[in-house]
Amino acid sequence: MEPLIITVAAVGAELSPEEQPNLPITPDELARDAAACREAGACIYHLHVRDSAGTPTMDVDVFRTARDAIVEATDLIVQFTTGGAVSDAPEDRIAPLELQPEMASLTTGTVNFGDEVFFNPLPLVREFHQRMVDMGVVPEFEIFEPGMIATAERVYEEHGSSHHKHFDFVLGVPGAMPAWPDAVEWLSSKLSDGATWSATGIGRHNFPVAATSVAVGGHVRTGFEDVRYIEPGKLVRSNRELVERVVAIGRDGGREIATPAQAREVLGL
Ligand code: KMH
Ligand code: ZN
To answer: Ligand 1, residues 11, 107, 198: which to mutate, most atoms within 8 A of Cβ?
Structure first.
């Protein structure tokens, strides 16, 4: 099996600093958080950013400063979100791609997201994917529902793409596909040859999904964006704490932990 690539979704757009006081927000905090995650075994830093008040933003300058701080402090692969927050306008979500991150997330369909709707109609998916292709940014297809796999393949074909195909199964968002025990293996069986994938379970599903993913040859995502409590009633203290748990799960499952250099090779970066 490939060495285990661990992605840390370190910030997200859902938790406020009041709900998670350890959320990294300033460039310094992001750089320190990223360095700690790298030391623990992470390869990819999935990046959302906040303004100085801690509110999610898609401001290009905030992304630039954050990315530069992380790249200065580590050799992590920085993966920009294009999902943003459910309230963000498409033109704001796509704007930071002008900075040509190594990777960016791309959700390939509309999905219920708690009481809200995460809006990704096909024309938006096409536009975002074409922009990534034009900018040389490798997408990570975010799969909240099975049909999103087919849509990712569809836009890949339509655009005559040649980039590596990498997917991330996001399981357990209220309103979307649950973290059913057989979901990870079933979804991965639907991918085309040569594609790679990771999986993340939201909340209490994070470590069980990680264990399944490790066992069947996938990769793993964790981080504050996905996990609020490390155990019932006990807030996660740091992204590093989550990465350490996933590293332990990976080693228990007999997987070597990938370095960012190994991950770049696997992902064709
Ligand atoms: N914040 C969610 C609405 C992504 O980063 O690409 C979407 C999200 C996915 O976080
Ligand atoms: Zn995200």
So the answer is: 107
